[in-house]
User: Which sequence fits this backbone?
């Protein structure tokens, strides 16, 4: 049984923000773009088609208006927070994807909240091949997924960008199974306050490629669930697939980790 089928069996009929976001309710074919064509996932004006999941809050609760639209961009804002309090969040697109190219632009537009952990300063990401948001525990900080990590520079710290992180998952790099949580690229973090582009390919041959401002910075393959759980509990997802660890498809989400960031021009090209 695939993850989406398992979720549908558990939660059939459940809808969020006026529209079903279950893989079983939203047919993947309905979110396919014509071959070779880009299709916008964000209309530039509203959060239609996107659902927030913030740690400690129910799916669909946009706590303190964390995710909002401003000047044609999805803005992650903390101006209504008293303190961050590990309120890690993700904004999920409504339908899963299998093979595709995703591209968008981002910029860190303001300093992080004072209490943001050092590792999370100027830190965000695009989560791909994610578990359905309905399967996340309310207390979960991150979905089981693959993260194309977005980092901005921090004074006194050498940082790379376009890294890969694996909450509850593993990847294959250079022919070897990798169980490290994050693996760095060799590309220095780009300046804060400026718009940069990130593109992620999830290809039919199993490869996943990260590009920053048009340049390849990371390539790997073999995305799979961690059968031992890891930092995110993937065991129920493995059980839902009768012990298989392969990831056949998944959701896309944008991350909030305590650093104000904006995302715009979010587009996808389906490849299957």
Assistant:
């Amino acid at each position: 049984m695939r993850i989406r089928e398992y979720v549908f069996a558990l939660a059939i009929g459940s809808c969020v923000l006026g529209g079903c976001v279950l893989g079983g309710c939203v047919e993947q074919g309905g979110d396919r773009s014509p071959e070779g064509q880009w299709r916008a996932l964000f209309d530039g004006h509203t959060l239609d088609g996107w659902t927030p999941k913030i740690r400690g809050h129910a799916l669909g609760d946009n706590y303190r208006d964390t995710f909002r639209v401003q000047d044609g961009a999805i803005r992650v804002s903390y101006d209504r927070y008293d303190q961050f309090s590990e309120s890690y969040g993700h904004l999920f697109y409504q339908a899963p994807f299998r093979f595709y190219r995703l591209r968008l632009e981002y910029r860190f537009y303001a300093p992080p909240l004072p209490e943001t952990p050092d590792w999370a300063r100027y830190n965000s990401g695009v989560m791909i091949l994610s578990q359905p948001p309905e399967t996340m525990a309310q207390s979960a900080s991150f979905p089981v997924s693959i993260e194309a990590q977005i980092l901005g520079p921090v004074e006194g710290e050498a940082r790379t960008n376009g890294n890969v992180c694996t909450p509850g998952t593993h990847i294959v790099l250079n022919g070897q199974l990798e169980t490290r949580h994050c693996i760095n690229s060799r590309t220095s973090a780009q300046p804060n306050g400026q718009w940069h582009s990130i593109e992620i390919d999830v290809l039919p041959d199993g490869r996943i490629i990260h590009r920053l401002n048009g340049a390849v910075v990371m390539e790997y393959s073999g995305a799979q669930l961690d059968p031992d759980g890891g930092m995110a509990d993937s065991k129920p997802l493995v059980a839902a697939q009768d012990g298989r660890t392969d990831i056949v498809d998944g959701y896309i989400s944008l991350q909030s980790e305590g650093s104000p960031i904006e995302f715009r021009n979010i587009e996808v090209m389906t490849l299957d």
Summary: Confidence is low (pLDDT under 50) at residues 1-30. Helices lie at 3-11, 235-240. The radius of gyration is 17 Å.
